[in-house]
Write a structure and sequence with these properties.
By secondary structure, the protein is mainly α. It contains 22 helices and no strands.
């Protein structure tokens, strides 16, 4: 089996890393070196460096799966009680360093292939960074983090490396098992939020946040019913894949139960945009295969029975669902926001108002409609606008057009459609077909729900782009080695250097 050269840092490199971490901690949070933290902080730093050293030796697929799981708590680490340290982003950085510096776990992984879609993504990143810098939001915490997490810097980078991280069947099985396990947690948490018992909700901050969510909707660890809906639907897709691929009967039953639990969890988010997206994605994905077409009607009937049973079991859920389906306030809010957003696009169509600037400039573009009330700027219209943060624009496409203009919006949309489209339609091993069908389902879900809801959390984009990278796949290391070897054979060029040499340098596969 071919192997790549790997790098194991010497012991003094880890010592230097620990000292650097101590200095940065003292610079950023000097209060961590007072009182009982004087001894505790160095101990935690040493333990953290030891943990990173251990992670450096493992397969990057394990680190990537851990990063995906911990992304569900992105933005909530203080509420969990672990301070403001972004563990999910740290793991993403470790994954990228493992690939870039050739950690021991990458000995059998192929080389990263740079493609034209990556260049387009890089151009989009440069554009949004320039937009944020000109708007003055790049130096703000929210503006910087939304560029990294919600526009797509971190997801784009993960899309570049996941084809090689999950190039093997074993690595993809690890990811599939991770998503099924995550689905069990998210689905049960959503059910506990809506039906009880509330004492089983973990972490406890979720129960505290649920009080603030309107209409009794389940938001899970995301504190957002939209992201909870996307996550439970994606995990339901993974559970369905596991049910068809796993051979052990008990594991298959577990996957089937997780799929049902996630379906209920997706429903109890009580988000109409989530419901529409789930139905559209399921129909599109089912119609692409013969088995899907055969099971579409029975599957829809089973889902209807499960949901009807949940409504019959919980009268309170039935009342919430009835109230949610007939709610008009959110419809009026979206109408007002859409009209304001369109006025903003008309005012600055090419380059927009700047990244993360909708809430700053949108008030003057709201107008009183003649047939419905003026709502949608803040959550509670009874509170003075200056005392309540403005609501985000509940249309991802329009939001990006407002802030980045039509040029930036087209760059973002082209990157999304190109990257995900390659993952779905590019021909690779037959082992990747279930991942391509699953990607089609969650991509349709994302594209539909983006019409109704704002970009809020990091998880949907992270999972979507990682899944796209897995579905795209990568040629085995042995094939890359043979191609690299043939690059130096005489082919009529000077010193035998011809077209394939650029493939070797860039690690790019000629198709």
């Amino acid at each position: 089996m071919p192997m790549r050269a790997v790098w194991r840092p010497p012991w003094y490199a880890w010592v230097l890393t620990g000292l650097t971490a101590l200095l940065l901690t003292y610079k950023v949070a000097p209060d961590r070196f007072s009182g009982r933290w004087t001894i505790l902080t160095p101990i935690l730093v040493v333990a953290g460096v030891a943990g990173i050293r251990k992670l450096w030796e493992v397969n990057p697929a394990i680190t990537a799966c851990a990063a995906i799981v911990l992304t569900v708590f992105s933005g909530a680490w203080r509420q969990v009680g672990l301070g403001g340290l972004p563990f999910n982003r740290l793991l993403v950085v470790i994954v990228l360093l493992q690939i870039l510096l050739r950690a021991p776990g990458t000995a059998h992984t192929p080389r990263v292939q740079l493609r034209n879609v990556h260049l387009l993504m890089g151009l989009a990143i440069v554009y949004v960074l320039a937009s944020a810098a000109l708007a003055g939001t790049l130096t703000t915490e929210n503006g910087y983090l939304t560029v990294v997490d919600m526009f797509g810097v971190a997801p784009f980078l993960m899309f570049m490396v996941t084809p090689v991280i999950f190039s093997g069947r074993r690595e993809r099985d690890i990811l599939l098992a991770t998503l099924v396990g995550l689905g069990a947690y998210l689905g049960l948490t959503a059910i506990f939020e809506s039906l009880g018992p509330h004492g089983l909700i973990f972490p406890r901050y979720i129960a505290r946040v649920d009080v603030e969510l309107p209409g009794g909707r389940a938001g899970g660890p995301f504190q957002s019913s939209v992201d909870e809906g996307f996550a439970t639907y994606a995990c339901a897709v993974a559970a369905a894949m596991a049910f068809t691929q796993w051979h052990d009967r008990r594991k298959r039953w577990f996957a089937a139960i997780v799929a049902v639990v996630c379906t209920v969890g997706c429903f109890v988010t009580l988000e109409r945009g989530v419901w529409i997206a789930a139905v559209a994605a399921t129909i599109v994905a089912a119609l692409t295969t013969r088995a899907g077409r055969r099971w579409l009607v029975p599957g829809a009937g089973l889902c209807a029975v499960v949901i009807a049973g949940a409504l019959a079991f919980s009268p309170s859920l039935a009342n919430k669902t009835s109230a949610r389906t007939g709610a008009e306030l959110s419809v009026w809010s979206r109408q007002n926001q859409t009209n304001a957003g369109l006025r903003m696009v008309a005012a600055k169509p090419l380059f927009g108002f700047g990244w993360d600037s909708y809430t700053t400039h949108s008030l003057e573009y709201f107008r009183q409609a003649s047939t419905y009330p003026q709502v949608g700027y803040v959550l509670d219209e009874a509170i003075i606008a200056g005392h309540t943060p403005p609501l985000p624009l509940h249309d991802t496409y329009l939001s990006i057009a407002v802030e980045l203009g039509l040029i930036g919006g087209l760059l973002w949309l082209a990157s999304l459609l190109w990257g995900v489209g390659e993952g779905i339609f590019r021909r690779r091993s037959t082992d990747l077909r279930p991942w391509k069908r699953g990607l089609l389902a969650i991509a349709v879900f994302y594209l539909v729900v983006a019409l109704f809801d704002p970009r809020e959390q990091a998880f949907p984009l992270m999972l979507l782009w990682c899944w796209a990278g897995v579905a795209f796949g990568s040629e085995p290391l042995s094939a890359q080695a043979r191609r690299a070897k043939s690059a130096f054979r005489p082919n009529g060029s000077i010193l035998g250097i011809g077209r394939t040499t650029s493939d070797l340098v860039l690690g790019e596969s000629r198709q």
